[in-house]
């Protein structure tokens, strides 16, 4: 298993990822270039932006790297 995932044409080491946004960015600014993308926060206050597919792939890769199936904390069930 690789310790990298690909986000925005970059190979990012999984251990550098602090968190991944659950919802796409929306600020309402007319000149915003990140609207609809997902923020991925790295160490040292760095941010990269992911598409929906990259966000989902990053989360799957992190979960696989962690080695355990976790229940989705946002899945409230029926």
- Provide the spatial order of strands within the biggest beta sheet: 3-4-5
Mean pLDDT reading:
89
- What's the level 1 CATH class? Mainly Beta
Q: How far apart are the termini? A: 35 Å
Number of E-type strands: 5
Number of alpha- plus pi-helical segments? 1
Compressed to H and E, one letter per element, the order equals: EEEEEH
Low-confidence parts: none
Topology:
Elements: E1 4-7, E2 10-13, E3 17-20, E4 38-42, E5 46-50, H1 52-66
Antiparallel strand pairs: 1-2, 3-4, 4-5
Account of the protein in words:
The chain is of the alpha+beta class. The chain has one domain: OB fold (Dihydrolipoamide Acetyltransferase, E2P), CATH 2.40.50. 19% of the residues lie in helices and 28% in strands. It has one helix and five strands. The protein has one helix at residues 52-66; strands at residues 4-7, 10-13, 17-20, 38-42, 46-50. Strands 3-4-5 form a three-stranded antiparallel sheet. The chain has a two-stranded antiparallel sheet with strand order 1-2. The mean pLDDT is 89.
For the structure shown, list the relevant keywords.
78 residues; alpha+beta; OB fold (Dihydrolipoamide Acetyltransferase, E2P); 3-stranded antiparallel β-sheet; two-stranded antiparallel ribbon; 1 helix; 19% helix; globular
